[in-house]
Amino acid sequence: MAQNHRSTENPQGSGAKPSIAILGGTGALGSGLAKQWARRGYPIIIASRSRDKAVKAAEPLRAQLPGAHIEADELAPAAQRAQIVALTVPYEAHHGTLMAVRGALDGKILIDATVPLKPPKVGTVQLPAAGCAAVEAQQLLGPQVKVVSAFQNIAAEKLAADELPECDVLVCGDDVAARDTVIGLIEAIGLKGWPAGPLANSAASEALTSVLIQINRKFGVKGAGLRIVLGK
Ligand SMILES: NC(=O)c1ccc[n+]([C@@H]2O[C@H](COP(=O)([O-])OP(=O)(O)OC[C@H]3O[C@@H](n4cnc5c(N)ncnc54)[C@H](OP(=O)(O)O)[C@@H]3O)[C@@H](O)[C@H]2O)c1
Fold this sequence. Notes:
Elements: H1 5-9, E1 20-23, H2 28-39, E2 44-48, H3 51-64, E3 70-74, H4 75-81, E4 84-87, H5 94-101, E5 109-112, H6 133-141, E6 146-149, H7 156-160, E7 168-173, H8 176-188, E8 192-195, H9 202-219
The chain binds NADP nicotinamide-adenine-dinucleotide phosphate.
Residues 24, 26-30, 48-50, 53, 88-93, 96, 113-115, 117, 151-152, 154-156 line the site of NADP nicotinamide-adenine-dinucleotide phosphate (NAP).
């Protein structure tokens, strides 16, 4: 079942949209991404430690989006069945979730949205020794998995809403083609994705989340985000 991202973009030349499993798709960010991709015709698998929980999370999405292709499954089978996998779990669950799906990801793109927040000081940057969560994922999974980091700086509430936020998404990854595929998935839902360099640069995206949390607090909002402006 393992395929590279090129074949998943266009399996057997069919032009079909790739299926996306969302590990942690029962949560705030994952369910928002599921909704946005599903409404654009991407087959989605909501993945959870509990199949029942995944089934319950899929129900309201199916009700909102009749005709969308939304399935539910446990973590490992969902990762096995999908062509692309997204990871949206709290940092404390990052290592354990990756261990649960390791082996099912070979040859695939893993989109890692994890921010290494360490409660209660979530407004302070606290990056892990490897540099960032996305690099930890790559080290754990090995080079046969194309880890791409994205979505650390977008508020889940905004993705859950019908109107998308006016903010951009930084996309980091060592495999340029995989990074471009993820930018395509971001642009498919109406957001702007920026190629932000190698996976190690995800340290900057992950750190910025604490900066945005501080701005949210200061201005009494929930959805501070980033916008890149190109100079001339
Ligand atoms: N929320 C946001 O606005 C936002 C924005 C940008 C980035 N992020 C980042 O995206 C990731 C997900 O954030 P979120 O707010 O969506 O998280 P969340 O709703 O708290 O959790 C997402 C899912 O992760 C699983 N999970 C939670 N705790 C776990 C644990 N201790 N062990 C194993 N699995 C656990 C649960 O899935 P099951 O129980 O179904 O397995 C849960 O539904 C985080 O790293 C966060 O920093 C969040």
